[in-house]
Recover the amino acids of this structure.
């Protein structure tokens, strides 16, 4: 196996795991807030992009991570927003 290919596979697995964590955090952080519906929609969009790892569109995932880190995290306020923004930007840079 080509070691560059193996490294890319490991990197993708790690970044996709972070993206999944962002989706989960969006869903849980928005629960019982006025952002609950938007949180469910954003989490569903993220999960839809990850439905087939090999088919995932990094550009679309980056866009969704940026949305989670900026507009959505800001709407949640300081309680869950800071953690969400940090995790989403970490995932964004790994994609």
């Amino acid at each position: 196996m080509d070691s560059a290919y193996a490294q890319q596979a490991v990197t993708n697995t790690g970044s996709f795991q972070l993206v999944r964590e962002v989706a989960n955090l969006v869903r849980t952080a928005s629960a019982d807030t006025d952002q609950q519906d938007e949180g469910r929609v954003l989490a569903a969009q993220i999960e839809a992009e990850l439905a087939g790892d090999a088919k995932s569109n990094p550009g679309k995932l980056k866009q969704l991570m940026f949305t989670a880190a900026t507009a959505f995290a800001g709407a949640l306020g300081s309680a869950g927003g800071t953690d969400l923004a940090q995790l989403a930007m970490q995932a964004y840079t790994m994609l």
